[in-house]
Amino acid sequence: MIALLLIRFPAARAQNETQPAAKGAASTAESPPKEKTKKPSPARLTFPPAHHRWARFQPGAWRELRITTETFDNEGKVVSRSVTTQQEILQGVNEEDYVFDVQATVDLSGKHIAGDWKSRVLQLVTDSAGQIVDTQQLDGASLSVDGRLVDCQVWKIRYREDARTLVDRIYYAPDLFPYILQRETSEAGEKASDQPPTERTEKVIALAVPYVVGGRLATCSCIQTIRGGAKGNTVRVAFESDEVPGGEVAAWSTDYDDQGRRIQWSVQELLSYGKTPPEGSRKRFRGLRGRARRRSRP
Q1: How many domains does one find in the chain?
Q2: Which of 6, 17, 223, 293 lies in the 20 to 30 Å Cα band around 177?
């Protein structure tokens, strides 16, 4: 019995010694590590310059507006009237934003108040100063305009505005002026699944409306904007042409309080415009022309 154990013990030891080698062989037979797959680039909405109301023009393009506003009391009587003359000059266009200078002069209660020139930098996609934080392309949709269905790309844009985060849902038709056929704006909810009420809806309600621009009839689009809130709402209608810097050639708006009473209305008129710097502002434009060229580069 003892001899038998002495003979079999080395055999068992040899078997135990070969065990790690078998494990090592198995580890070398494992498949090689997988190559890292590149994450797709996030969706991004960019406008060709020709599709934006300012970017389609060169720096120096300008327009002059007159805005007449009346304010009403609770009985519907006019309590104040003001006339604002506003000048705007395009200074430059970048890949994502554009900059223009604006100056306003107000005639109110017999006083003539001239404001200073100020620069504004706005995003091309949102026409807002807020930084874009996220862009997402959604499933396409068709909108009915002038009795016809128009296929649109649908984009969801999140951006900052003051202390809030807003979301624009944009219906974009690359082959049909004015290209953005509808825009729905709401405040972003705390969760991605939240659906806060829409604060503003801007939509094209007519594609070809005649309007006098520069002494002749021009084809314009008619855009209606409805802005709602706890304190009331605003209804605005504008005519837009691709021939005029800034797009709008006329606009009418009315403000209502939370009881539906009219509290203010205004009319915006295009007084003049040009595609090169105006003579009266040429000196100012020369002073900013270097900045405009720098901002024009992608």
Answers
A1: 1
A2: 293
